[in-house]
Amino acid sequence: MPFARDRRKGWAPYRVAGIGVLLGFLTGCAAQSPSILRPVSPKGRAEADLFGFILAITVFVFIVVQALLLYAVVRFRARDPQVIPPQIHGNRALEISWTTVTALGLAVIFAMTWRTMAATSTPPADALPVKVIGHQWWWEFQYPTLGITTANELVIPVGQPLRVTVTSADVIHSFWVPQLGGKMDAIPGRENVLWLQADAEGTYYGQCAELCGASHANMRLRVHAVSPEAFDRWVESQRAPAASPTEPLAQQGYQVFMSKACVGCHTINGTPAQGKVGPNLTHVGSRTTIAAGLLENTPENLARWLDNPPAIKPGSLMPRLGLTPQEIQALVAYLSSLK
Ligand code: CUA
User: Fold this and answer.
1) Residue 251 Cα, ligand 1 centroid: separation in angstroms?
2) CA distance linking residue 258 with residue 242, whole number of Å
């Protein structure tokens, strides 16, 4: 009876500690987390309101049911084990009423859900088109009307609705930025539409929400919501071709990039590198992170990444290229110069 012994221990110290850690973690995370309960978009707010409404109904039902249960337990408890209470069966009025009330409650929830979906599923007509393409394991972002392609960090103007078309280049992913509302599957060969909008400047964290292979958890993204003026400046700089390296080390890095496998997978606009497999690196130096949001974009991290990508992102389709430390330093200088 090994389990019986465990059960008697009940509140063993390790359990108390475990629950304490969990509670601490949850409260600590609540302040930081990109929670759906702190929405920053019209769609996110509509969804959070719906959640609050349904939660209120269910909490009300929970309290009523528990109160009746407790009342029944106390009021009708067995006082004399010898006495069998009167046996009753069926109560038509009660059965009809609890069936009707439950059905009405569900009908109200259905109607509210329908209304929220109708109000949030179609982006406004003036929305800026953006295409999101999931890859194992990074995100590609295209702005078709602006002629921009970037990766992992979506820059958007605050207050401007976006018509986001979500698709995938390989397996099913799911695009999710909790505070901006909604989760949208990225399915190969299919285009799903999502209304994205941020009503306050800031950086919003997102994450792939569909198990898509070894580095599913490492498929992160950020949405940078900036002022319309800052967005216009960003668009301007992103549309420019890549900067030509001026420093000798960066020039050396350019040569390494163009002579190694890098060109086969990456595009750098205005250079012979036109690969389509990996992220577009034309302005990689302007991004705050590398490796799908796993690392801050610093020279040290870039060097670590170039040395051994699968060690940082397990399963990474970018292999270990066997670059020498000199080649890595040169590449870091070149890539960092691509602002
Ligand atoms: Cu992509 Cu999970």
Assistant:
1) 36
2) 14
